[in-house]
Amino acid sequence: MNKNNKTVVIGITSSIAAFKILDLIKNLKKERIEVFVIMTKHATEMVSPSEFEQASGNKVYVQLFEKGFDYKTILENRKVEHIEIAEKADVFAITPATANIMAKIAHGIADDFLTTALLATSAPIIICPAMNVNMWNNPATIKNTKKLKQMGIQIIEPSEGMLACGTTGKGKLEEINIIASEIKTQLARTNSLFNKKILVTSGGTSEKIDDIRSITNRSSGKMGAAIAEECYLRGAEVLLLGAKLSVKPRYKIAEKEFNSTEDLYKLVKNNIKNFDIIFHVAAVSDFKIDKPLTGKISSDNSTNLKLMPQIKISDEIKKIHPSVKLIAFKAEYNLAELDLIKAAEKKIQDCDADAIIANDVSRKTSGFEADSNEVVIVLKNKTVKNVPLAPKREVAKKIIEYLLESKTFS
């Protein structure tokens, strides 16, 4: 084996979807990724280990104690297979994962080759569940899934569709190309932001009208979550300040929630001095209700609401922490590119930002709620970089790469 190759250990459990992992192995091998397979005993009833040995080019591990096991040999050679395989892993993926294996991992049970190796690994862990829809929705599975996420394990949730049992619902193993992409993302982790402390704001604020209603915007928090994830994958210490209903990151990233602009402003003030960089991605309301009402406004009569200008958090950040690197996002509506750049340059002057990421949210393919985005990066020295339409995770990657190249964080 080439020591420069990345290594993925795949744990296969007894789901009908086990046969699909042959395609996953082929996908990874095309990228010259070394693959080792561990199967549970019941998984071998689904697909023969020989098929995975042929696909991976390596021995498939099943039994914790193989025929002829002798503790004297272990003591003489100081080699324990499930420990060796655990230490080889750059990424450890359990796919497909049954409800049973998820329960075991959540509670630290190690009673076979797969669970003992998993408990011994220090590599990032990805779990890809596949099961009956009722099993997936069972309170025990929901509780275990939450616990696994809290442990820092990435869960690639199942998709909806026709299941092997004939029912339709959520429980289908996610597409192999998506699983492969997530594995490769983990393998591509770097330390380019190691020792950097980065604060990210994300999602839309909500301003109270009465005790029931509020005014808000269409920000989903997808872009902010993508920025936080990319910083995390590059070794940064990240704190995400996210709107209560915004998209959550896939990885174990520290989070604090906010509702209103005032909530977010307090969080920024209380935390900003501990950070080197802030990505202010949140869509902050420009207005608030002058005098929010108590109770619930009757719908029988018309009501006039007076909107008051809201504090601009981006303008306050450098006043609180002058040395922080401020990367702020600016959303504009239906502007030509030159006007978008001018708006970004003005924003740099207004808030003393080190860079502005500007985008046009009038386009359905980018901006609020969309899975993709296209932005213009404008630096303090007026250097401009266009990032064309792409999934928000790719846009986040390109933003970070450019800011590193331009030494904006230095």
List its traits.
2 domains, Rossmann fold, six-stranded parallel sheet, 20 strands, 410 residues, single chain, alpha/beta, eight-stranded mixed sheet
Write the layout of secondary structure elements.
Elements: E1 7-12, H1 21-30, E2 34-39, H2 49-56, E3 60-61, H3 71-77, H4 81-88, E4 91-97, H5 99-106, H6 113-120, E5 125-129, H7 133-136, H8 139-150, E6 154-155, E7 159-162, E8 168-172, H9 176-187, E9 197-202, E10 207-208, E11 214-215, H10 222-233, E12 237-243, E13 254-258, H11 261-271, E14 277-280, E15 287-289, E16 307-309, H12 313-320, E17 325-332, H13 337-351, E18 355-360, E19 372-379, E20 384-391, H14 392-405
Parallel strand pairs: 1-2, 1-4, 2-3, 4-5, 5-6, 9-12, 9-14, 12-13, 14-17, 17-18
Antiparallel strand pairs: 7-8, 10-11, 15-16, 18-19, 19-20
How would you describe this protein?
The protein is an alpha/beta fold. The protein has 2 domains: about 180 residues, Rossmann fold; about 210 residues, Rossmann fold, CATH 3.40.50.10300. It has 14 helices and 20 strands. The strands form 5 sheets. The protein has an 8-stranded mixed beta sheet, with helices on both faces. It has a 6-stranded parallel beta sheet with strand order 3-2-1-4-5-6, sandwiched between helices. Helix 10 crosses helix 14.
Offer a concise description of the structure.
With 410 residues, the protein is α/β, with parallel strands linked by helices. It contains 14 helices and 20 strands.
Overall mean pLDDT: 93
How many alpha or pi helices? 14
State the share of residues found in helices, binned by percent: 25-40%
Name of the level-1 CATH class of the largest domain: Alpha Beta
The CATH architecture of the largest domain can be given as 3-Layer(aba) Sandwich
Question: Any low-confidence stretches, pLDDT <50, length ≥5?
Answer: none
Most strands sheet: 8 strands, mixed
Widest sheet: strand ordering: 13-12-9-14-17-18-19-20
Assigned CATH superfamily of the largest domain? CoaB-like
Fraction of residues in β-strands: 15-25%
Structural class: alpha/beta
Report the principal-axis shape: elongated
Distance between the termini: 39 Å
CATH topology of the largest domain: Rossmann fold
